[in-house]
Amino acid sequence: MKQIAIVMSTVVLIAASVACSTPANPSATKAGSTAAASAASQAASEADAAGRVVTDALSGVSMTAPAPLTPTDGQAFKYADQPLTLVVKNATTTGATPTYTFQVAGDAAFGSLVFNQEGIAQGAGANTSVALPKLAGAKTYFWRARATSGTTVGLFSAARSFNVGPEVVLQAPVLASPGSGAAVSGTISMVTNNVQRSGPVTAITYRFDLSNTAAFSPALASAVVPEQSGTTSWSPNVTLGAGTYYWRVQAFDNASGVSSPVSGVLAFSYQPFDLHQATIVSSPQDFANWAETAKITSVQFFGDSFWVDFDRRTGPNRWPDVPFGDGSLEYTLGMCINKAGHWYCSAVVQFWFERDLGASGVPSHVNFEWFYDFARWGPMTGYQPEEGETVGLFVCAGDCRNNDAGDRSYVKERSNVAFVPWSNSGNGFFTFANGRRTK
Amino acid sequence: MRRVSFVVAAMLALGTASAARAQGLVVGPYAEFQSGFTVGSTVGGLFGGEAGFSANTFDIYFEGGKMLNTKSSEMDAAAATIAASLGQGATFEASQPTNYFDIGFWYKFPTTGKYQPYAGIGLGSAGVTRETKFFVNGSDITGQLPSMGVQLGGDLQGSERGFLFTVGGGARIGLTGQLFADVSYRYGHVSISDGGVNTNRIQFGIGAHF
């Protein structure tokens, strides 16, 4: 037995000596392995704590790279589409459930990472995703992902690119009229200054909201209007009662998907205009009852005149002329002004057929070219509308000036009263369709 | 190496001394060629050789050889997982050849017949290599896997050398002259980093005493 013990001990010594001193068996990593795998292999090639000689650790697991799903390669995003989400099909692994690393870089070599997040848990379904922070615009990015199972780091997926469009910024619209606290009658026209903008804006639209509450709940009317030159206006197609109303505007660039902040909210008071309630001054007293057979079609202000046109001024259906001195008159241009909360209307300027529309007079001279005689115009005498003040304009068939009886009109017809913001400075062009302001 | 040579010399001296009292079938140096197969999740061939010195009641031996495939069911499962992820009806071939050598001791059971049963243990070293190939429509695509985003880990490829422990037994049968036949079973465990590889060798040998 002693011999056996000696022999056994000797055998153990020899075997242990040989096993522990055997040089590493060179085992080349197979072609195609990654640098990471090589590094892992090198690390594993060193003798481990148990004294084993490892040439290529067999403890690593096999896995596939996650497959990029979205964005698709080369996909273009609007800046406003952000934040973007990267989605990959989960990796397949022979080991533990992997975690994921997502990288986004500004170059295809991934030398300038703009996003690098590791340890993202695998999604519950077949895919895993990560939301990106907002990226700079007007730039192409490259992205990829890889899985890590245990200590084994997988291959990166094939890189994909996507593009983030330039950033478009729209400032909040600045509302023009009606201004805060303004008194409005007739057709309401809300006008906003076109927004300040930066970036490649294409076509801007404006959403107007009108409500009788400051919270815009409920909204009485809303509309999206394409941007117009300089300012953009909208006339709501609703019938309003007397009261306070609120309006606001928000701008949109549909191409980039960018919206502006909502404008400030302005309040105005609306007083419905009723010709029957107005005081007719030095014109037919039953004027309100005349048939409304014509519509004002445009009002244009100049420095030396303002032109008021209507749809029965010319053409075969024009109003008939009435005798006037040696000639004739077709119609009389009139104005309604709101003084101390009450409406006064008077037809003043006589027009014969095809008379120059500029004969209406200088806008800033109304006080002494229109209402210059107290005996005739009484409360309207010397009245000069202020800049931006809402004024009604109308025409009546025949000669209505200084004619309370209204007996110098064959047809006793009139137009609607079109309301416009007065312009002493001669700026403003307003058009109407079927009595409603379109510009 | 000098230390190893010294130990081997000492062992041979002990064996020679024992031979003087030999009661077994044959005493003295011997060598044999071995072939057979391994059994486990798959059956694989093997070949190898053994040389040693027979003393009266024991042998001191040195053996080495190669087991052609000692893969486990886990290796097959891992390969199947990767093949499935490749789609296109991908198939695979997985193998785990293992080179080994060890030095050991056989105790020879007392006998009077022509059969000499023995049992013993050995210690040594083994190199385990894992090789997996993938095919699509019969074409080997293994080399294209990295470009397909597939990374084979140590569970499917690579090699590692570890400590070998073996235990087993068998019987030798005297043939004509100096020749003998050997039938044996040897269990082995290779200690490598994923928990080790177990092998079951069933061997048939033919050898000669000198």
Features:
heterodimer, A: about 450 residues, Immunoglobulin-like, 3 domains, 6-stranded mixed β-sheet, disordered N terminus, B: alpha+beta, Porin, about 55% strand
Structure, explained:
The complex is a heterodimer of chains A (439) and B (210). Chain A has 439 residues and is mainly β. In chain A, 9% of the residues lie in helices and 39% in strands. Chain A has helices at 2-21, 35-45, 366-370, 374-377; strands at residues 63-64, 67-70, 75-77, 85-89, 99-105, 113-121, 127-131, 139-149, 152-156, 160-164, 169-170, 174-177, 182-184, 190-193, 197-198, 204-211, 219-226, 231-234, 243-253, 258-259, 266-270, 279-280, 291-294, 296-301, 306-310, 322-324, 327-329, 331-339, 342-351, 390-397, 413-415, 418-421, 429-433, 436-437. In chain A, the strands form nine sheets. In chain A, strands 3, 5, 6, 8, 9 and 10 form a six-stranded mixed β-sheet that branches. In chain A, strands 13, 16, 17, 19, 20 and 21 form a six-stranded mixed β-sheet that branches. In chain A, a hairpin with a 7-residue loop joins strand 16 (204-211) and strand 17 (219-226). The longest helix of chain A has 20 residues, at 2-21. The radius of gyration of chain A is 42 Å and the shape is rod-shaped. Mean pLDDT of chain A is 86; it is low at 1-55. Chain B has a single domain (29-209), classed as Porin. Chain B has two helices and eleven strands, in the order H-E-E-E-H-E-E-E-E-E-E-E-E. Chain B is elongated, with a radius of gyration of 21 Å. Chain B is α+β, with helices and mostly antiparallel strands and 210 residues long. In chain B, a hairpin with a 2-residue loop joins strand 6 and strand 7 (139-140). Chain B has an eight-stranded antiparallel beta barrel. Classes of the chains: A mainly beta (439), B alpha+beta (210). At the A-B interface, helix 1, helix 2, strand 1 and strand 9 of A face helix 1, helix 2, strand 5, strand 6 and strand 8 of B. Strand 1 of chain A pairs antiparallel with strand 8 (150-151) of chain B, so a sheet runs across the interface.
